[in-house]
Amino acid sequence: MDTRVIFxxxxxxxxxxxxxxxxxxxxxxxxxxxxxxVFKNCAFAKGWLAxxxxxxxxxxxxxxxxxxxxxxxAVRKVxxxxxxxxxxxxxxxxxxNLDFGQMRLRKKGSDGGHNGLKSVxxxxxxQEFARLRIGIGHPGNKDAVVDYVxxxxxxxxxxxxxxxxxxxxxxxxxxxSQVERPESVVHVDAIKSRDTERRxxxx
Length: 203
What we know:
Layout: E1 2-8, H1 23-35, E2 40-41, E3 47-54, E4 57-64, H2 71-82, E5 89-95, E6 103-106, H3 115-124, E7 130-135, H4 145-149, H5 155-176, H6 194-202
Parallel strand pairs: 1-4, 1-5, 5-7
Antiparallel strand pairs: 2-3, 3-4, 6-7
């Protein structure tokens, strides 16, 4: 069985539902809708799971319910249950260091100051896993970061958000469908950005 596991990082609870820090949740929710999948409570790890079997390829989507700072605990339990290694996972998360809507897909790297990535790196003592980082911009003042990431998107961002989320979900699909080993990550630049198209229409 060829298994790929995609994790969307975020915080559980209605109060966090539409916040910048929950962009990973939003992308996986979009991906599940595109594939006609439904998330269900997971029996072996704290979170919600959806999966799709196509031939010999199993694609697992997982949303940890551990809160961002403890994401590594849930990721570890899912990998142990599925019997897969870090080379077969993709983490999707927001990123303060990228402009809003900018995306970077890398096969390894540091946490970049993101507590969810930091938790996963600590859980495995390794940075050797793919991650799709999606820019939310920076408030400009490091003292404002905590409030900023836990706030909802502003009006302009909400107008652009659906296209960005859809493009990110498409990127996840391309990563999961690779015939070769998934650590040979696809390039985001190869996917035409619907956000760019949408902004052109709004001018």
